[in-house]
Amino acid sequence: MKFKMYFLQVLLLFSANTMAQTFNNDLSALSLIQQGIKTKRVSSYDSSGDNHDNLQNIKSGEKRIIFDVKGTGMINHIWITMGPEPNVLSRNDVIIKMYWDGNDRPSVESPIGPFFGQGWNESYLFTSAVLAATPTNGNGLVSYFAMPFSKGARIEIENQSGKDIRSLYFYVDYVEMKSLPSNAGRFHACYNTELTGPADSVENEHWMFGPGIPNKTGKDNYVIADIKGKGHFVGVNYYVHSPTPYWYGEGDDMIFIDGDEHPSLIGTGTEDYFNTSWGAPKVPYSTPYFGYPKVNDDIGFLGKTHIYRFNIVDPIYFDKSMKFTIEHGSMNVLTLDLASVAYWYQDKAVAVPEIPDAAARKPMPMIGPAEIHKWRNEWRKNKGNDPKLWGN
């Protein structure tokens, strides 16, 4: 009898483990019937029954709340598009903010373009598992990040563009729930930008002008995220504008966890963290978790590159803090116009740092053959103005 009972317990345990293993991915979990959950939507539909399904004429300097829900739930889908087109209305100067659980400071604050994977004020196709910019030409902005809340949620759009937003269309799909799991984190995202420069004014990449200055502490690295609290980091959109044809991607990623003095995680080069190799690709490509949706197709590496990596199956966990940095060039020796949006979850909703104002966010102008020709002319004059100087 004891043997039969023991056998039954083992069988039940085996069945439970088998069931847990069977339903531990998104597609199998999709088959599970949920209790106490109701799907809801807030959108820009025309409540009169007519077809003017958008918010209209959001003035420059104006803020509009597009989502304000009390109670417990989780946003699981956002779609936004707006007019006029990006060449008229800068997506770099329309700000999206998200507030959780009644907080008066946002846990998400970013220009709307960079948040959804559209760098600078450009529009192009971008596809990943959690964020996308869809046809036509990247104007449909999509998020599938899970965004839980227990005491309410608010999403606000702020127009800093100097022009009117003529029309704003949106869906915010969410579920109402009686309660959240006790370990449900809060979604956070923050934008940063910096015009970097070498410490001694010499862009000494690849030891071109002599020995380099070793970088062990990450002191002058570009900062992607500086987080206080407990949680896990889940990804970054990284935007690089290079004024030189020289390769900019030797900069290592250096990640400091829980106050470590030296990098807890350190990489071997920018392209390596983003899962590529031997420089940036010359054609765009996208996978669910990493890719290059925009590449510089000018001379060498001159121009703009958008790279992303989402740590969906490999989050970076921290208990007290995490500082994610990356070198600009090997040992921080290059002038680069950098911007990024970092995404993470924390055990409670906290305020993210305020983002730079519109003037500080303004992308640097493009450099092309005309500028290079002018620089060559100045070099020739500096060398005595010999008309046959070749440049070597």
Automatic annotation (TrEMBL):
MF terms in GO: hydrolase activity
Any Pfam family hit: DUF2961
Highest taxon in the source lineage: Bacteria
Key word Hydrolase present: yes
UniProt keyword annotations, A-Z: Hydrolase, Signal
Signal peptide as annotated in the record: 1-20
Gene3D superfamilies hit by this protein: 2.60.120.1390
Annotated InterPro entries: DUF2961
Protein's recorded name: Glycoside hydrolase family 172 protein
Organism expressing this protein natively: Pedobacter panaciterrae
